[in-house]
Predict the structure.
Amino acid sequence: MNTLDNLPTSTVPVTVLTGYLGAGKTTLLNHILTYEHGKKVAVIVNEFGEVGIDNQLVVSTDEEIFEMNNGCICCTVRGDLVRIIGNLMRRRDKFDHLVIETTGLADPAPVIQTFFVDEDVQLETRLDAVVTVVDAKHIQLHWDADEAQEQIAFADRILINKTDLVTPAELEELEKKIRNMNAIAKIYRTQNAVVDMDTILGVGGFDLNNALTIDPDFLGEEAHQHDESVGSIALVAPGAMNSQKLEAWLGELLPTQGQNIFRMKGILNIQGQDRRFVLQGVHMLMDAKPDREWRAGEERKNELVFIGRDLDEAKLRKDFNKCLVASGKGFG
Amino acid sequence: MAKSKSSQRELKLVWQAQLAEYITSIACANDGRTVVASSAAGEVAYWENQQLTMLLDAHGASVDSLSFDASSRYLAAGGQMGDVRVWDCGNGSPELLLSLAHKSIWVDSIAWHPHAPYLAFATGRFVQIWDIAKRELITTLDFDLSTVFDLAWHPAGTHLAVAGNLGARIWQSNDWDEEPEYLPANNALKHLAWSIGGDFLAGATLDRCLVISAIEDFSSTWTMRGFPARIQQLAWIDKSQPTVAAISAEMLVSCAYADGTWQAMPLEFHRDFITTMSIHPKFPLIATASVDGEIAIWEPEMGVIGSFNDSNVEFTRINWHSNDRMLVTGNDRGEVKIWG
């Protein structure tokens, strides 16, 4: 029998770097390459920039968006990545790390979805994190662009770079605004894209086993001002969820609202289950599984975060609450 | 050492060479005297009269495609270095005839015309066609759908089919400027293959479908869904009924045309993923090899008629030798072996 599942996994971690032109992506890429000195790193870029390290494989590519239709789920993938990664990963002396630098105008979704849906890519690689570099000053000129908001919304790690170009008050304001857009990313303030590499490598941002962490500041605020169309919604409720109701809700929500949902992450308490139920999604794609057991004394609750565009917070909250088992009545 | 379970005869290892990386491509000249192999380290090895010559040494960039023209005089190689190289093997030892450089483009599709020394290869979204005897560019085709995934000449040389996102474009070789025909697919086509007689064109999509259309009307396609994994390779078998074979996961699927429709027959034998197959040059026999070192010889109607395992290696290529009783294999450890 084929026992592929029992073999030690030797998948290569992938870091996706996004951010506007001039935000500091290439600088960060060069920091990564310096840090990973001695390891085999393959870099996929959209144009040859000043990637300054010898002996690393740099592949340049043109973004190609392919549609994949799979029943009611449709999504886009990057055809160029499918071709390149399949080819690269056959080598015997495999790479230790793959870094993909997107153009400033790229939508991160097809890149991420490639790692969720392409079977050859999935076999050899695992998406570690989307790292977005934001130019603290010039981002103000780009808020109207969908790409600028999407790159923040999809991120696991956000570097607010060039902090020396703005005042502390402006920086505070900017961080709050970014936090409202993406409540699950960790945010770092940097100059010259200098950041502790441990914070952006080995993140496991798409690993279901990693607990969801919602920024307490975000949860602490009473009302979130969503002055941009992209924002985060955190739904938190004690109690247990009815699995049929939950399934019905998400089964309807993702095909109809998936285009506007960029990322979704959650930890839920399912009625009758001793284990936590974890889920994550990108647009219409969703991954879910039972996780570890709830610990003795641990508060069993439900947390679900949506990051997206023009999300109807009131309706999401109402539908989420409908999935809860009515307290005191037992079986809902 | 390999042991054959076949009742007919045992295949023995007759020759072996070691390259630096996994074997990306193998080609055999028609005369049965020459075998060439390329590797992911960029090597091109040429074996003739018991003698091994390295046409290219390991230089880091993978050579991905290797092919002899119809006369077996010219050998072409393309890969991640972006160069297309052509050797003239007509006067004893091969001489480099042509080297066409394309900076930062991977040339993973090359295809020789079925009887003239015309070479087609893809550079990104374009296809170049060269007359190698004259060392002249015949034409450059602009492929609008995406980067080119595969190229296939019609067996009579009358058409060139080019695969990419959402289908294939089919040019007629008597007028390259004429608008190409279109074979639609709802996903990217990764592989293309014409039937032996040239009546049908088959394509394999990224999302596990097989698409076939007849040459009279490419727009009318027959689609088979539900393959267990992405199709790794397509090849037609010379039988009275047009028959195309596809490898997908552990399965060899044969699709035959009968009574106006296509009938698919899944054939099982391998216990792990099949990576490569080769159709016998004369008989309706298929050789397959898998990631667990298993080689099987199939007669499409009877199933497996012989098999053996080579130390559980992951095979990357299998080719029938033009001397029709021998097989050439390549694996992920860079070993090229000839079995006879």
